[in-house]
Amino acid sequence: MTPTAFSLLSAFLLCVVGLSLHRTHFMSALLCIEGMMLTMFMLLAQLTTTQQSTILATSPIIILSFSACEAGMGLALLVATSRTHATDHLKNLSLLQC
């Protein structure tokens, strides 16, 4: 395993651990998910360049566009929940209430 791939894999696992352990604020959860998506983009870009395959050439761009949509939707949800609940703590949010 190359040092670049090892550092990207460890960054992805660090984001997963951060998402699973530190779920107090909605913003920190969104940042961990964004970090996971960006490391997936970099891993796919590295895989595409090392494999030199034309089939995988559009995969990093698709992942990057999904990441941008996810970030926009997450920030919209953050604004909506902070307006209705006056906080971004995940423990105060209940999915059973409208």
UniProtKB/TrEMBL annotation:
It is found in: Mitochondrion inner membrane; Mitochondrion membrane. InterPro entries: NADH_UbQ_OxRdtase_chain4L/K (IPR001133), NUOK/Mnh_C1-like (IPR039428). GO terms for cellular component: mitochondrial inner membrane; NADH dehydrogenase complex. Its EC number is 7.1.1.2. It catalyses: a ubiquinone + NADH + 5 H(+)(in) = a ubiquinol + NAD(+) + 4 H(+)(out). Residues 1-18 form the signal peptide. The chain crosses the membrane at residues 28-49, 61-80. Keywords: Electron transport, Membrane, Mitochondrion, Mitochondrion inner membrane, NAD, Respiratory chain, Signal, Translocase, Transmembrane, Transmembrane helix, Transport, Ubiquinone. GO terms for molecular function: NADH dehydrogenase (ubiquinone) activity; oxidoreductase activity, acting on NAD(P)H. GO terms for biological process: ATP synthesis coupled electron transport. It is a multi-pass membrane protein. It holds the Pfam family Oxidored_q2. Belongs to the complex I subunit 4L family. Core subunit of the mitochondrial membrane respiratory chain NADH dehydrogenase (Complex I) which catalyzes electron transfer from NADH through the respiratory chain, using ubiquinone as an electron acceptor. Part of the enzyme membrane arm which is embedded in the lipid bilayer and involved in proton translocation. This is NADH-ubiquinone oxidoreductase chain 4L. The gene is ND4L.
